[in-house]
Amino acid sequence: MHSIHTSFNLFMPIAIGCDHAGFDYKEELVKYLHEEGLNVQDFGTNSRDSVDYPDFAHAVATAVENGNCSFGILLCGSANGVAITANKHQEIRAAICWNVPIAQLAREHNNANVLCIPARYVSVDLSKQMIDKFIETDFQGGRHSQRVGKITCA
Predict the structure, then answer these.
(1) Nearest to 25 by CA among 126, 132, 95, 97
(2) Which residues does the annotation mark as catalytic?
(3) Domain positions in the chain
């Protein structure tokens, strides 16, 4: 997968984080990404014990925003909490995706840099497919650039 054309710098780590509802998926996805030859920076959580999702969403968003990671993956039960939290960061465009076409459009039209996966509503296999599509899809720019430029408040 990492040999495909992508606008993401895959020499940099991919940030990943979750709450307790996304823990099992995160473990599977980290393993998958490593098998694909990609570097992953895991921001936790590291068990199924109940935790507060903003702690992990902020860590992933900060790593992407600061340029320490190429993009981010966040997981929680519905993906709403992690997406809301990550999108508080000015340079983050976190997209909740529940199928491959939505993951593709999040990149093409919104230049999303954090993929948010609802672990209670999609399979691990579908999550892998969405990640693959997210990585291989470039932002289309053009008419979408002006729209994306209007997202931040600062």
Answers:
(1) 126
(2) 76, 109
(3) 14-148
